[in-house]
Amino acid sequence: MTGIKRKFSMLNMSSTAAGSATADDRSTAARIRDAAIEAFAEAGVDATSVRAIAARAGVSAALVIHHFGSKEQLRVACDEHVAASVRVQKAAAMRQGPGMDVLAALRARDAAPPLLAYLARTLTDGSPHVEELLDELVDDAAGYLQDGIDNGVLRPVEDVRGLAALLTVWSLGAVVLHDHTRRLLGADLLAGGAAAIPYLAPALELFAGGILTDAAGRSMRAQLRQATDPAQATDPEPASATDPEPGIDSGDDLTTDGGRR
């Protein structure tokens, strides 16, 4: 954790639960940070002045600098808070197990500052902080994916962090391309709530059911292994003991000599 991260860790810990704080019970620093998230989400970091953030938060520009030192350090605090909010929301959903309330998770996200709009703006601004933010999001994703495996939400995988990196890039790509996601799917990811369902429905079909047959998946994995390590055999993975034989439905009742009853 960097010095800047340590400086704002207590601020994030005290106000990470999205939607739990109102304008009356948030600290001044939290109000400034939330105002900055909203302003950066609307206009981007470069186009947003400290004065504009101060006006939105109802404080002076001098007080913004007093709490955060500079706009750049305020931006780091915003990154940290957004990452922490995503982590808390995802981890809470995974802790519910297979019966998680998906709609409640969407409502919890909607009660927070505009996290996805903030990410859509800041991930493309070329700042050196983007790499640090992405690394943190991937590390966090690996943690709550493992929670999901442990709680029976997800199937075990060989490379949890690799999967976390892939899913983070995929999901953030959809956020950055939110205008095209809305055009192609009719889903407004930045609006959230029910507006995101046209995106979530085909995503759920992909994740829950998969789109490759077992045979195709085994063959492709074998080819990838062969490409990365030619010493490995080129034969596809053997079928598992639970895979039905080709042309035989798994529900068929077989006799001991291989015939159907």
Can you characterise this structure?
- The structure is a single chain.
- By secondary structure, the chain is mainly alpha-helical.
- The protein has a domain of 174 residues: Tetracycline Repressor, domain 2 (Orthogonal Bundle), CATH 1.10.357.10.
- The chain contains twelve helices and no strands.
- The longest helix is centred in the N-terminal third of the chain and has 25 residues.
- It starts with a helix and ends in a 33-residue tail after the last helix.
- The N terminus and C terminus are likely disordered.
Considering the chains and any ligands shown, give keywords for the structure.
261 residues; mainly alpha; Tetracycline Repressor, domain 2; 62% helix; disordered C terminus
Summarize, please:
The protein has helices at residues 3-15, 28-43, 50-57, 61-68, 71-95, 102-110, 115-122, 129-150, 160-176, 178-185, 197-209, 214-228.
> Rg, please?
23 Å
User: What is the CATH topology classification name of the domain at 3-176?
Assistant: Tetracycline Repressor, domain 2
Can you tell me the CATH architecture of the domain at 3-176?
Answer: Orthogonal Bundle
Helix content: 55-70%
Label the overall shape.
elongated
Q: Count every beta strand, where a strand is a DSSP E run of 2 or more residues.
A: 0
Strand content: under 5%
Separation of the first and last Cα atoms: 65 Å
Quickly name the level 1 CATH class of the domain at 3-176. Mainly Alpha
- Major beta sheet summary: none
What structural class is derived from the secondary structure elements?
Answer: mainly alpha
Mean pLDDT: 82
Query: What is the name of the CATH superfamily of the domain at 3-176?
Result: Tetracycline Repressor, domain 2
- H-E string: HHHHHHHHHHHH
Low-confidence region ranges:
1-10, 13-24, 244-261
| Count of helical stretches | 12
